[in-house]
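[job 0412] stage=complex_fold ligand=phenylalanine status=START
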Amino acid sequence: MSTVQAAAGGEGSRGGMAEGTGQWSSSLAFLAAAVGSAVGLGSIWKFPYIVGANGGGAFVLVYLAFVAAVGVPLMTAELALGRRGGPSVIRSLGIAMGHPGTLWNVLGWLSIVAAFVILSFYSVVAGWALAYAVRASVGGLAGMTAQASGAAFDALLADPAQMIGWHTLFIAATALIVVPGISAGIERAVRWLMPIFAVLLLGLAVYAAAVGDVARTVRFLFAPDFAALTPAATLSAAGHAFFTLSLGMGAMIAYGGYLAPGESIPKTAAWVTCADTVCSLAAGFAIFPIVFAHGLDPAEGPGLVFVTLPVAFATMPGGALVAFAFFALLVIAALASAVSVLEPLVAATGAGGPGPTRTRRTWAIAAGAWTLGLASVFSFNLWSEVRMPGLGLNLFDSLNLMSAEIVLPLVGVGIAVFVGWVAPLALPESEFDTPMGRRVWLFLVRFVAPAVVTLVLFDALT
Ligand code: PHE
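[job 0412] stage=complex_fold status=DONE, emitting structure tokens
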């Protein structure tokens, strides 16, 4: 065990180390994993469609403001908590404040519930991406008209057996990567996945710039029209900032728990956030130029990449290959993220000393999330009429709303208050290049993050 983990007294880390879970072997490996966690369906699938559905520029601006003012300081806080308190999110807060049994661990438990729920539906959506990647690889998306494309997506959603099949494959792949642990599993996978991801994303953005309408994309993404910004849109921008940065559910705490001493946490957080933002915008630049050039609707919603894009691909030079590249990109991004949703669950359940092995815990959690995922699968077909009482939404949308848009920001505020007021020593001055840096950070976690997130939640829920 490293001295830092020993000093942190992290029983979680001890549990992990005993089974050879390990530590990130280099800063680069950690960065690849953390960026892999952040950049996922959230950046490539959801960001473009919620920007489209919320009118573009103003939404992007609000989102960027959240990312800078709330996202970076909170990611800093989560990584620091993990490093001090170990990767088990249900204990790290207590350990970080030297009070293992504290009530603050409730935040950890909430994160765990959110992670479990998110894993369940994340895998279902990733399953669609997998289905499309496989279809594209055999030329199955060729010649799509707008009508055929809509019908093909509807047919996938209407077929529970098919959806369950893809969902099963995806969650099994996620578990296979998580089982061997940090260095032998996650790190080994992201070393391959992230470079391929970067090349694909860059290639797609360049291609879109060559064949699409970039000028209109720039206007759409960056010219703000504040009239289009509703309270619900603001909440969704805030919720998305948490979701896309993997905050509020223990992922960054767990990843921070395997971080070697000597890494600068604030710098790491800033890098990961920048990379995620650049990838989200790049996804916009890979998608919207093509959408605009074909006169398609940017406000299509969740079907933007599954329905709208294939129509464009079908008429473009090299479209079949591009379609495959795009959906492969989506699957890779989703996989590197899903492992970071599963890892905190595995770390937390292993924190209590001898118990089931890591392999058993991983498969048991994956099986549980798979089962809950069936509710999301059925919301598109067998249970499409079922509505969550009080919310009026189907099960998939309700699970998404409650976890991603409510629990993540709530836990985020809790963690901001915790590190800002209760355990500021979780991030000592020595972690910052300048004392000023720490003062700015404290100001953001003490005042800005709690105030902004509370206001947004309040505004949207009343
Ligand atoms: N950040 C990932 C994405 O944008 C999703 C995620 C959420 C991963 C929460 C881990 C924790 O797709």
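The pocket of phenylalanine is lined by residues 37-38, 40-43, 118, 243-244, 246, 249, 251, 337, 340-341 (CB under 6 Å).
[job 0412] exit 0
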